[in-house]
């Protein structure tokens, strides 16, 4: 069963360009992962510094492999997360 991740990332508007650039690089790498089915990055309209990510993997193991990837550590853990003021993540099974 496919596995989805919906994340909302909040950063200071001053950090928006850095976060946006890192998320777009992650999108590039993630779409090449064997278990990735979709990876979309959205900027919330009219609300600077808020991003919504929609990710879909073949299964939960595919998502775990994504989190173990070098680009995830470099771009998300080391670059994006330190700049966030808040984040929320929802995990779902695709029906």
Describe the structure.
Helix content is about 35%, strand content about 35%. By secondary structure, the protein is an alpha+beta fold. A 4-stranded antiparallel β-sheet has the order 2-3-1-4. Helix 1 runs antiparallel to helix 3. The longest helix has 15 residues, at about 15-30. The mean pLDDT is about 100.
Structure described in brief:
The chain has 95 residues and is α+β, with helices and mostly antiparallel strands. The protein has three helices and four strands; from the N terminus they run βαββααβ.
Which helices and strands, and how do they pair?
Blueprint (H helix, E strand, L loop, with lengths): L2 E9 L4 H15 L5 E8 L6 E8 L2 H9 L1 H11 L3 E10 L2
| Portion of residues within helices | 25-40%
Summed up, the helix count is 3
Strand neighbour order, sheet with most strands? 2-3-1-4
Strand percentage, roughly? 35-45%
Principal-axis shape: globular
Helix/strand order: EHEEHHE
Low-confidence stretches at least 5 residues in length (pLDDT < 50)?
none
- Gyration radius from CA atoms, angstroms: 13 Å
- The secondary-structure class comes to alpha+beta
Largest sheet: 4 strands, antiparallel
Provide mean pLDDT, rounded: 98
Q: Would you count the extended β strands for me?
A: 4
Termini separation comes to 8 Å
């Amino acid at each position: 069963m496919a596995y989805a991740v919906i994340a909302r990332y909040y950063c200071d508007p001053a950090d928006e360009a850095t976060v946006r650039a890192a998320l777009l690089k992650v999108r590039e790498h993630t779409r090449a992962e064997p278990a990735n089915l979709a990876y979309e990055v959205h900027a919330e309209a009219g609300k600077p510094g808020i991003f919504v990510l929609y990710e879909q993997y073949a299964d939960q193991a595919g998502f775990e492999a994504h989190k173990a990837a070098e680009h995830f550590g470099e771009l998300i853990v080391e670059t994006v997360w330190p700049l966030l003021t808040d984040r929320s993540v929802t995990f779902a099974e695709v029906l």
